[in-house]
Specification:
Keywords: 3Fe-4S, Electron transport, Iron, Iron-sulfur, Metal-binding, Transport. The protein is of the alpha+beta class. The chain contains four helices and five strands. 23% of the residues lie in helices and 17% in strands. A three-stranded antiparallel β-sheet has the order 4-1-5, covered by helices on one side.
């Protein structure tokens, strides 16, 4: 059995559209001004996964995020070769932009 879906709501990003509460009222409530709050700890039951995913995808300001290692539709991302994932070695000889950058 796969890990349960976990979500997070960033209330600072919420603009009060209410789409999340429309799609998944068991997980999102709206305050007096229409801003969303997450109900519970963000763990989503398998039976509610589709409704919560619809709320996540329909949020116009992307205030809802899915936590964990799985991708946007509950699938794990493909494994990446370690050589491909390595950071490039950027020295000042390789890039003028980096050589002129001052921190």
């Amino acid at each position: 059995m796969s890990e349960p879906m976990k979500i997070k709501l960033d209330r600072t990003m919420c603009d009060g559209f209410g789409v999340c509460a429309k799609h998944a009222p068991e997980y999102f409530s709206l305050d007096d001004w229409g801003y969303a709050s997450l109900i519970g700890d963000g763990t989503v039951a398998d039976a509610d996964r589709d409704a919560v995913m619809r709320a996540l995808l329909d949020c116009p300001v992307h205030a809802i995020t899915e936590l964990g290692e799985h991708g946007p539709l509950g699938q794990r991302p493909p494994a990446v070769n370690a050589e491909e994932a390595a950071e490039p070695d950027l020295t000042s000889e390789d890039s003028e932009a980096i050589s002129e950058f001052v921190r």
